[in-house]
Amino acid sequence: MTTADPSTGSYGDELIDVYDLMYAGRSDVHLLPDFCRQLDPAAARVLEYGIGTGRLALPMARSGYEVAGIDSSVAMLDVLSSRIQGLPVTGVHGDFRSTVISEQFDIVLILTNTLFMLPALDEQRRVITQAANNLTQTGKLVIETYDPQVYLERQSPFSVTVPLAPSMLLTDTVITDRRECRVTQIHAVSRPDRIDTITEESHWLTPRELDLVAESAGLQLTHRYADFDRSPVTEHSRNFVSVYTLRTERDGAP
């Protein structure tokens, strides 16, 4: 069993064969370009932290955006390179906690719980601060996270099994550590000839905690939705899509 570490690329390397299958049913691929267009009709340049195989970056590029992205997995970036086919997409190999991109972008994306994959609050704060530095003066930072309450409601570990492809099953076993604000997911991919297992850990922030970290980076919350269809947050929401902009002096920035 392997434990995924996003800083070394092991997350992408271990899941490379099944990553796109795991997220095949998500609506974000179809909704994200229009969501970003409504945020800022004039936006042209996008930076994605954790670009991976281009699951989201490529649809964004097909919609007219110029997309750059950082990822620590060479295997993921190799898949991305094979799919670009002339689209305006650039992948940079590196750990986004320390790899500095000095350019500014109209929209910066930290999606699919990527922020929660970082194991410590100071690392999450560092990445949000770096993302703020990557924004133009009118830029938007979009962070997608799960609602911790989904896991806090569970009193014991649970498992879910879904088909990924013919003769391939994915079983996710989920363990919640309330004290450490941590969710451990054990992914078991079953094929006729073998079972591959990888452990993924995420460290949650509540929406209010996320807002406080963003405020410390000079950002302010402008919108929070339940999904990229801009649906409102309710007590039944399982995810949050939070949009931040840079604070100005008039807004109270130091």
UniProtKB/TrEMBL annotation:
UniProt entry tagged with the keyword Secreted: no
GO BP field: methylation
Entry superkingdom: Bacteria
InterPro entries referenced in this protein's UniProt entry, alphabetically: Methyltransf_25, SAM-dependent_MTases_sf
Signal peptide extent: none
UniProt keyword annotations, A-Z: Methyltransferase, Transferase
Gene Ontology terms, MF aspect: methyltransferase activity
Pfam families: Methyltransf_25
Domain Methyltransferase: 46-139
tRNA-binding as UniProt keyword: no
Database matches in PANTHER family: TRANS-ACONITATE 2-METHYLTRANSFERASE-RELATED
Protein name: Methyltransferase domain-containing protein
